[in-house]
């Protein structure tokens, strides 16, 4: 570099202010990725001070809850999802709002789920408290709750989400589908005769997402090969696993769901793909759930 | 082996974080997007790390990811307009640069010209690496650099070629 103008430009380039949060974000992203498919609640490593805690047991009455209750007929399905416990904290720049769902019902499957949700909600809250203890500056928010995707006479599909915001936010979503009559949890493999569904669904997802990339000329991006938009050497989607996230719509369509970074760059957020039933017909056990 | 490579990756990102941010910022021009680009790039880096065979190339390997990620984001936000090389090289100083100071002039350069200057001079990469990162032929990298400097009215004592 042997020109004054370039030196001046270089100095200006170096002068770009570095945001305080950079280091926090870097450290958060430098944690080795959790082993595939064994995703736990997100772990954060951050900072500050004791906190005011509101602990509500029982059904609470915030607007979001009122809305999800309004979707549930008063007389009708017995199996419902309700907010059981809520953890809240607001302290300086830190906020946590964690709703722990509980499913009404008495089968072993449902009891196991309720126990798991209670445990995860508590762990998430403890983790948040520990993280802000270590944090020196900045802000952080944890927001966790659930959304009901489908609630019919036969089926209840809902997703539990954990959204962690440290400057930018990331969301993890985990869906559960319950047969309301039998009070059993429906797993992906239980819908199918054998393993062939894995390949059928994976290939359909590849085609579908590739088409979305082509149609939007790359403004939608997925980690799928075969187009100019994604460089395959960065890694591509290989296929779904038996415990892949899914839900079933009111019309009985199977929808596969992918978390942030699972199949696309972070800016794409959560990704869902509805699978046409005719592709699955040969391998479905029956059309009881998937139509 | 993999663990060592992961350690090297972590060290690289940690020590170079400011450079990475500045480079991202040179594309996005805003703080939030630059942070997102850095974050997405690290996540992609984890995914692609097993394909990095030569550890010596960590820097140019990661810059490639970061540059792609930044351009993807601009494309997603429809903030990008890529221009063919033929038109690029026909730009003249009279077009838009007359009344701008130096820094503004740099910012007004088409992205494909600006990024070559940023990588070559501010990130101090060899022109060969710049070409590699941007996935363009060496000759194209050189002609873009030459054109960019000309538009900025910067004359070097020693030319790139």
Automatic annotation (TrEMBL), chain A:
Q: Where is the DUF4179 domain?
A: 36-99
Q: Does the keyword Transmembrane helix apply?
A: yes
Q: What name does UniProt use for this protein? A: DUF3298 domain-containing protein
Q: Which Gene3D superfamilies match?
A: Fervidobacterium nodosum Rt17-B1 like (3.30.565.40), Heat-shock cognate protein, ATPase (3.90.640.20)
Q: Which organism is it from?
A: Solibacillus merdavium
Q: Which InterPro entries match?
A: DUF3298, DUF4179, PdaC/RsiV-like_sf
Q: What are the alphabetically sorted keywords of the record?
A: Membrane, Transmembrane, Transmembrane helix
Residue ranges crossing the lipid bilayer per the database entry: 41-59
Domain called DUF3298: residue spans? 191-277
TrEMBL record, chain B:
**Limits of the RNA polymerase sigma-70 region domain:** 13-79
Q: Is Signal tagged as a keyword?
A: no
Q: List each copy of the RNA polymerase sigma factor 70 region 4 type domain by range.
A: 101-152
Indicate whether Transcription appears among the record's keywords.
Answer: yes
Kindly state which keywords UniProt assigns to this record, in alphabetical order. Sigma factor, Transcription, Transcription regulation
Q: Family, per the entry? A: Belongs to the sigma-70 factor family. ECF subfamily.
**Name of the featured protein:** Sigma-70 family RNA polymerase sigma factor
> What is the originating organism of this protein?
Solibacillus merdavium
